[in-house]
Amino acid sequence: MTMIPDFSKSYFRFYIDFEGRQAISLSHKPPTRTNRTRITLESICEIVHRPTKRSTTYALSAACKTEQVGAGKNALWLMPNADVIFVISNDGQAGIIKSWHKNNPGVMRFPESLGPQPERMFFRTDDNFDAAALEVAEVEAAPLTDFDSVTRAILGSRPIISRIAYADGEFDVRIDQPVKTINIAERDELMQTDTGPIIVPDLSPERVKSAKLEIEVFDLAYSAWHRPDWAEFIINAPMAIGRGVSANHYSRPRHVEPTRNTLFVVGNA
What we know:
The chain is mostly beta strands. It has helices at residues 147-155, 205-210; strands at 2-5, 11-17, 34-49, 54-61, 64-65, 83-89, 93-99, 120-124, 131-135, 138-143, 160-168, 171-178, 182-185, 190-193, 195-201, 218-224, 231-242, 245-256, 260-266. The strands form three sheets. Strands 1, 2, 3, 4, 5, 6, 7, 8, 9, 10, 11, 12 and 19 form a 13-stranded antiparallel sheet that branches. It has a four-stranded antiparallel sheet with strand order 15-16-17-18, with no helix packed on it. Strands 13-14 form a two-stranded antiparallel ribbon. Strand 11 (160-168) and strand 12 form a beta hairpin.
């Protein structure tokens, strides 16, 4: 048995006291005086820097929409509306990734003197939250080591977790995610995951050097694999949709090889 993340009981939590601070990520004046939030997690990524043995855990939250918590009738959704997803670490780093109907729509922060809303905003948690915590619960699970055990798990009802691990330069990367969609072709003895979103680090020297915080190296992606030694991601990136207009879309493939891919089923196989 192996201990893996229990995504059904893992959360990102934060608290903001608007009477004591000006939040840097809002585009409206809050209708309430405080906000305490609990968000489930979509994926977890551990990065180990081998030369220093530094290990950092990062997580991607479930998505939400830009809203006014506590506003009156017909005023809960901010327009234009954006997808919002949080990235959080266990060492005090945080990020907010937003996507509108198009890139750079001109939505202003509150107050407007802060300038336009960025699509990617990264900071120390103390810069935007009065309290923030990444809570990762664990559960016992069994690795699925052959096609028959994978088939039984897919035909069953227990949660399945995908783990993709690989080396990238000086770093070791491990990505865990709940398997939401999985395909099986019995006659070919083949299964394939297709699930997300997750966070995937771009640990190229250029990306690492340009990042003020390590959390800035992450991209949103979906993952797919059907072999134990390679995986493919589809990265969320700006995509042209007209003259001078782009929108974020899962549109940039990335192949990683070699990897160590494993499926786990919660409980005994």
